[in-house]
Please model this.
Amino acid sequence: MTFNEYQEAAGKTAIYPRKLSIVYPLIGLAGETGEVAEKVKKIIRDNDGIFDESEKLEIAKELGDVLWYLSAIAADMGYRLDDIARLNIEKIQSRHERSFLHGNGDNR
Model:
């Protein structure tokens, strides 16, 4: 499945007020990202940071929710996920080639 195929399928399940486009899925993204972090925190606390297959699967499911919200935000802004992925790879490759992976700022 490509990113764009995923985005098309995920978009069919997007049910939220269009007047809240971008904002609604952004709030959802923050919540789901927090759920991923919370699961990892509990593994560190309760299992000495050792991830078993069951815990990895639960985190993968939460990452799927993160992807859903990311997809919705991109769609609301008129972007395809393939384009977002390409833009990101171009950005990080450029930083790597110029030895700017470390440091601060979006446009380094």
